[in-house]
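Exam review. A common question shows you a sequence with its structure tokens and asks you to describe the fold in words. Practice with the pair below. Do the first one on your own.
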Amino acid sequence: MKTIYLLRHAKSSWDDPGLADIDRPLAGRGKLARETMAGYLAEKKLRPALILCSPAKRARSTLKAVRAALGPEVAIEIDAGLYGTNADGLLRRIRGLDDETPSVMLIGHNPEMEELALGLAGAGDAEARARMAAKFPTAALAVLRSPSDHWRGVTANGCRLEAFVRPRDLN
């Protein structure tokens, strides 16, 4: 069984319209939301073996809080391929993971995170799926489980949605 955590980066700031998209920092609200989600991960003892993070500043800033909540034993890769790809590209990246890795967290962007989560979730909590389909807001987390023992066995509609958590659900 493989576990996939899809975490959308926290709310970014648009205060400096001259910044390149990849360089946008977190907004104040985003900083609060990332801490809320980090607290949730720590409380629930959700421990991905590997975190793959987009190189965008807002994603790396989200990672900073998550890393502090998960501890130093989690392997982390800043993966340029997560920025600007589509949901199929994210799935290809997941399917290419080493089978020795039991779980992975992707920290990335919408609409790709939402499309991937909806595409993978073939079973599970129907109410959570409906909330996720309505909107996958910044700093939201989808937790999916694949029955496969191999990452290449992660397929469309082949996962169970275990949870969909938004920062506002925790406040």
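Now try the second one, then compare your answer with the model answer below.
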Amino acid sequence: MNMEYKIGEFVRFVDEDIEGYITSIKNNNLIGVTDDSGFEIPVPINKVTKVQDETTKKGNTTSPVEAKKRVKEETQRQTSQDILLKTPAEFIEKGVFVGVIPQQIPGKADLYVSNNTSFEILISVSAIQHQNAVGISREIIKKNSSSKFFSGELNSIKLWPKFNFQILRFTSEEREITKPIDKTIKINSTDLSIEPEPLPILKTNGWLFPLDQQEKRKIEKLKEKHISHRPGSKNKNSIKIKGKIDLSRFNR
């Protein structure tokens, strides 16, 4: 093996404006030189020349060993990033809710639109009273975000208006076409009779009303609540008759 050159030495190409550190010795006539871009270039030994004290001339305090280590770390980092980019994240299509959140002030609540999907959504919220509608909020809500659109008194829920939601969903990924959401809801006091649930995006507990799917959970929980409180009959034979019965008088 040609010992004229060693790994870690700084060299410059004779015929090209390229320089770097020797990072491998292929054979007696061929070495590998890694330049600033991090790529190793195979080159014949007679096509390079040593550059003495290059680190001092350039004001570079990085030793050849450290430079080689950094090249290796950068290559590993780029490989890890490529793997992550090739692994697509799960796309969540459903999960647009209205969240009713009790305020710290007793007797009051805030209403939010919560976007738990992978879409960005454009919402328009209107309040409906006496068959007329007035817009009260319009917003672009990014994924895993929320926006407040109403505040009200909990003891006056029956006076709250109906809310109409018109929602467009957007994504730059290639997906099937989604139809706009057009849904009207009326929140009643019975809707808040079940236990509030954790709302991760809002980081609190509250009541959820889906806008992009059917609401079954609330009805089922109310049924369970009422059925569990029905008194059961301990005695199947609730009526006992003593003595004989004369059935002749019932004959026509």
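Model answer, second protein: The radius of gyration is 37 Å. Residues 54-59 have pLDDT under 50 and may be disordered. Full marks require stating both points clearly.
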